[in-house]
Amino acid sequence: MTERKPKDELAKLTFEEAIGQLKEIVGKIEQGEIPLQDSLEQYEKGMALIKHCRGILQKAEKRIEKISKEGPSEPENQDDDEPLLRG
User: Fold this and answer.
1) Chain CA centroid to CA 1, Å
2) Closest CA to 12 of 44, 52, 50, 58
3) For the segment 15-32, what is each residue's pLDDT rounded down to a tens digit?
4) 11-69 maps to which CATH number?
């Protein structure tokens, strides 16, 4: 059975880290030198990373829309457990 990355571990990844992992996965699959089962596992992991990235982008879009409508303001405490950007 495959070892899956726990959801909370995936949620800790920044957008840039997730994109980096996606690039690695694409490179492995494109080489075509890994077994089919490994390719499928990498594909599954890649799809989870894409979903994570889309979520981050959607949060960013909502934040931009809010800022555009309200204009510049002081930073607020966000209700999200996870900050949008990490340093």
Assistant:
1) 24
2) 52
3) 999 999 999 999 988 888
4) 1.10.287
**Please, what sign has the CA dihedral across residues 19, 25, 28, 29?**
negative
Query: Could you give phi then psi for residue 70, rounded to 5 degrees?
Result: -90, -20
Give the integer Cα–Cα distance in Å for 18 and 14.
Answer: 6
Domain segments of the chain: what residues?
11-69
Q: CB of 44 within 8 A of CB of 36?
A: no
**Assigned token pair, 85:** 């950007």
Residue whose tokens read 């495959």: 2
81 or 63, which is more confident?
Answer: 63
